[in-house]
Design a protein that fits this description.
alpha/beta, Ribosomal Protein S8, Chain: A, domain 1, Leucine Aminopeptidase, subunit E, domain 1, 4 domains, 34% helix, globular
């Protein structure tokens, strides 16, 4: 049942939200699955954020010249949002991403970048100057990060030191190109390595990079984008390309794009809409190197029908038709079908089918664009290319199609804070269509205040001088229980105590990067102390100002939510790559399935509010595999575990993990605890203070068991062979401790309240 409430803000609570509103939204949405908007609040800029260090730059191509069969281009753009196969990071030899571009890329890409870098150093040692290594790119809109270690020279360097540094910089560029070829990367973005804090003279830096590109033998492996966000570096790269690269002088027609009504019509126009960089360009949709290419398909899913589908089919090959044909009998109108890319230069193809009644056609097109953008965010991708949808089966006029698609992008920014590059790609021969989209994009750019200016955060500014909206947090959820938990959490945050203790085992995943972020966020007089007590990790936040403690608390909890999200994605990537279904399905309270559990929990004086059935094919496959590995006695037991509300969704997606719910007293070993009865679960997990009680019912493989002891990190050996261990530990007849989450298959999540409450 849907539920909604408004939480008024005034005084201290208003001051707190001004300082940490975006983080507060992240926590409410991540922990409780709610939809959240904050009204009437002007947020303060966070001086520790990457955006403060590196202001958003609308991508602008300054020149593009052919060289050895590829393109070399100069861009003014932000590398944290630049969509290419690989971005080059200006790294130090320890791969500690603590300042400048390295910190911006690491902060935006997420903690896995620093973790993977640390693991490389652990296994291989420091990276030499002039060398480079490759890691994954996390949440950045690229496939890989190339960490290049350029030379660092003293401020008053001698000519010999500069000459040596020039050779090292050239070596770093050659190594970047070599790695691009090795990893089959089609495009690489390179900044002005070693300039800035590394003291390499900027003009010589540009000259060295461009000369190395020109002289690289036998050929350049990919398109090269020389990308910097500051004007001096961009200008030096332009000068170096003019002076060093062969061929006629490059055109500057693109420099004027997107600069207002007086700008000449260009082949590309770019405008920033919230966190979305929207680019209108001429080109062939099948040649776009975005993460996603969008196709507009016929209702029968025949890719031979329609110009766009035919072009994509020809480039991708027949396998894409075979894959989409599987959806003919299951396709639901209005949904987007995702297929592989095959021979297309993207990661995925989204197929839309836009047909419907005349009076509904604008909504159909709007929903199709919005669903594609939502899927890009859900799949942690960074860029998407649309053709001119709607001018076919929907029979839109060109102006109407352009207007609806652009409004869909604007509306998307209301509820999304993810960076994304969106391309509207118009065929070069469709001059009238391009002009229609160009007019729509320029009208968007010229509006003093876009329809959705701040991606969901509504401000109290009023151009007419009237009183702005009352400051409040608006929270809505499809479930009453989640909304009530969210309200309870908000009440707790704004109780404004000078001390807050957060118990959450994911704090153990805080690395050096997370603590650097916290140190930047810490306010004067606020301290954070990490602790580990009875296998339960946590942090203690204290300060003289109760407002400052509340702000830091919200920021810490937002960091935990992001770490938990990364944890889920890593676990998913390790699951079997077969057809996976996952989710929670509500059980009808009038069925035997519900009534049986109602009777079980009633014996412990608990009233069952809701029962969700967990359906996850990958977890089931892993559980069955574990059952075969354990062998007899392999019959599972129905057992219970009490967990905090915020981990229910994680259970349904990636199963049971020790991090979720350590027992109050781990007297039988340091593993995952289950109980044979609901009452025992209430005894094992006594300290959880929530309005509702959340239980997981699971099938648990205990196998060969032996009595547990507090010091057991793993089960002891069965006999003389130290490699053969018991499968679980026991704490009497009603408590079992396992050490592999695959030994437990979650089957139901039960939400209860104590009788009489």
């Amino acid at each position: 049942m849907a539920s909604k409430f408004d939480f008024p803000l005034h005084g201290a609570s208003l001051n707190v939200v001004k300082q940490c509103g975006p983080d507060l939204i992240d926590v409410l949405e991540s922990r409780f699955g709610c939809t959240v908007k904050i009204h009437g609040v002007e947020f303060e800029r966070d001086p520790s954020s990457g955006q403060s260090r590196r202001p958003t730059v609308v991508p602008e191509e300054r020149l593009c010249v052919p060289l050895k069969g590829v393109k070399v281009s100069v861009w003014k753009a932000d590398l944290t949002s630049f969509s290419v196969d690989a971005v080059v990071n200006a790294a130090n030899s320890r791969l500690q991403h603590i300042g400048g571009l390295a910190a911006a890329l690491s902060d935006t890409g997420g903690p896995e970048i620093q973790r993977e870098s640390d693991e490389f150093i652990r296994q291989n040692g420091f990276v030499k100057t002039g060398d480079a290594v490759v890691t994954n790119a996390g949440k950045l809109p690229c496939k890989k990060l190339i960490h290049a270690v350029g030379p660092q020279i003293p401020q008053n360097a001698t000519s010999a030191e500069v000459s040596q540094a020039k050779l090292q910089l050239a070596a770093a560029v050659k190594r970047i190109l070599s790695l691009a070829g090795k990893y089959k990367l089609h495009s690489v973005a390179i900044p002005a390595l070693s300039s800035g804090i590394f003291n390499f003279p900027l003009p010589l830096c540009a000259e060295t990079i461009v000369t190395t590109l020109r002289d690289y033998s036998p050929h350049l492996p990919c398109d090269i984008h020389l990308v910097n966000h500051d004007e001096p570096s961009v200008l030096e790269m332009e000068k170096a390309c003019h002076r060093i690269l062969p061929g006629p002088p490059p055109s500057y027609s693109q420099v004027t794009r997107g600069r207002g009504r007086g700008a000449a019509s260009a082949s590309e126009i770019t405008v920033q809409v919230g966190n979305v960089t929207l680019t209108l360009k001429k080109g062939n949709i099948e040649e776009q190197r975005a993460d996603v290419i969008v196709n507009t398909a016929s209702p029968d899913l025949n890719l031979s029908a329609g110009e766009i589908s035919r072009a994509l089919l020809k480039k991708a090959g027949p396998n894409i038709q075979s894959e989409i044909s599987k959806y003919k009998n299951t396709y639901l109108s209005g949904h987007v079908i995702t297929t592989g890319s095959y021979n297309l230069p993207c990661k995925q193809v989204y197929h839309t089918v836009c047909t419907g009644e005349k009076e509904q056609r604008q909504q159909i097109l709007h929903n199709a664009v919005a669903e594609c953008l939502r899927l890009v965010t859900k799949n942690a991708l960074g860029s998407i290319a649309f053709p001119a949808i709607g001018t076919g089966n929907l029979r839109f006029g060109k102006e109407e199609a352009a207007r609806v698609m652009i409004y869909a992008v604007e509306d998307f920014t209301l509820n999304s804070r993810e960076r994304m590059d969106v391309y509207f790609v118009i065929h070069p021969s469709a001059t009238d269509t391009f002009k229609a989209f160009e007019a729509a994009v320029k009208s968007l750019q010229d509006r003093p205040s876009p329809r959705s200016p701040l991606h969901g955060f509504e401000h109290s500014n009023d151009s007419h001088g009237s009183r702005g909206p009352t400051p409040l947090i608006s929270v809505s959820s499809t479930l009453t229980e989640e909304a009530r938990e969210a309200k309870h959490w908000l009440n707790d945050v704004f109780s404004l105590s000078g001390t807050f203790i957060a118990s959450n085992n994911f704090i153990q995943y805080f690395g050096e990067q997370e603590f650097r972020q916290l140190s930047r966020k810490l306010k004067r007089g606020v301290s954070i102390e990490e602790f580990l007590e009875k296998e339960s990790a946590g942090v203690k936040i204290q300060g003289m100002s109760v407002e400052d403690v509340a702000v830091v608390r919200v920021q810490v909890e937002a960091m935990l939510c992001r770490i938990q999200k990364d944890f889920v994605e890593e676990e998913k990537s390790a699951m079997p790559k077969m057809s996976i279904t996952s989710g929670r399905k509500p059980v009808d309270r009038y069925t035997h399935e519900f009534k049986y559990r109602e009777s079980v929990f009633r014996s412990s004086k608990l009233s069952v509010i809701r029962v969700d059935k967990v359906e996850n094919s990958a977890l089931k496959d892993l559980f069955e595999l574990k059952k075969k590995q354990l062998g007899p006695p392999g019959s599972p037991r129905t057992m219970y575990q009490r967990i905090p509300a915020q981990f229910c969704e994680m259970v349904s997606q990636v199963g049971i993990h020790r991090e979720y719910t350590p027992p109050d007293d781990p007297r039988y070993g340091k593993g995952i605890y289950f109980t044979g009865s609901v009452q025992s679960a209430m005894d094992v997990w006594r300290d959880m203070v929530e309005e509702y009680l959340y239980f997981v019912e699971a099938q648990v493989l205990t196998g060969k068991s032996t009595p547990g002891k507090p010091e057991f990190i793993v089960p002891p050996a069965v006999g003389e062979d130290p490699a053969i261990l018991y499968d679980s530990l026991s704490g009497g007849s009603d408590i079992s401790v396992i050490f592999s989450g695959h030994q437990a298959l979650p089957t139901y999540i039960i939400i209860c309240k104590k009788m009489g409450y």
